[in-house]
Structures are given as C-alpha cells and as structure tokens.
Amino acid sequence: MRILLHVLIALGGLLLQGTVMSQISSDVLKPDLAFLVVVYLGLHVATGEGTLGVLAIGYLSDVFSVQPDGTFLLLYFGAFYLAAGASKVFYFRGTGFPAAMVFSLSLAFSVAISWMTHRAAPLPDATDPRIFSWGF
User: Fold this and answer.
1) Quick check: 121 and 68 in contact, CB under 8 A?
2) The whole model's pTM is what?
3) What's the pLDDT at 136?
4) Contact at 8 Å (CB) between 7 and 57?
C-alpha cells in the first residue's frame, strides 16, 4: 500500500512537471520529480518492495515522455539500485548522505539521459530516392 502511495506521488510529479513546470521554467532548471521519488525508494524502502514501485514509475515516465521506450525505466532502475546498494554501506542517520546521493545521481542521470538521446541516428530524408521501395 505504501508503494502505491509513492507511485501516485511520482505520477503527480510527472503531471506537475509536464504541465506547470514546462510553462514557468526553462529546460535547464526543470527538475525530474519522479527521479526524486525513485532515489527516496532506493534509500528508504526494501529492495524487493521498491523494485515494483520503480517499475511502475519508470513505465509512467516513459509513457509521459517522447524518449524511446524504456529510457527512463532503465535509468530509474540504475539509480534505484545504486542508491539502495550505497545506502546499505554508507548511510548513517544525521549525515548529509541522502542529499549527496540525490546530487550525484541527478548529475549522472542528466549526463546519461543526454548521452542516450543525442546519440540517436538522424531520421532519413524523405526525398532521398534510395529510400523508396516497391515492397520487394
């Protein structure tokens, strides 16, 4: 039941990000609100339970984006498992570890998403006669 609440919070963040944030902020300053929920799940929820939540959040993020299918799902799973693994070794209450994890994973996330989306091949020119085929 708690995971459903986290998924609904991430869905609200995706809706807020897609409607309001796109109107009032630039692309550089637009936070990924679902990513924050994924990192929180990695830091504070058991791995088996959090995996289902990250699966749902990643799927919803892929549905709401124009990126290729599975882009956010892959990146969210990577961030979740990195946060979960690091929290088991380095996390102590009262330290700045959660803030450091959010900062470092958000930097890695932004580099990864730009690398994954900008390395795609350009679409072929529709006027190129070599593309036309009669079907055989």
Assistant:
1) no
2) 0.76
3) 45
4) yes
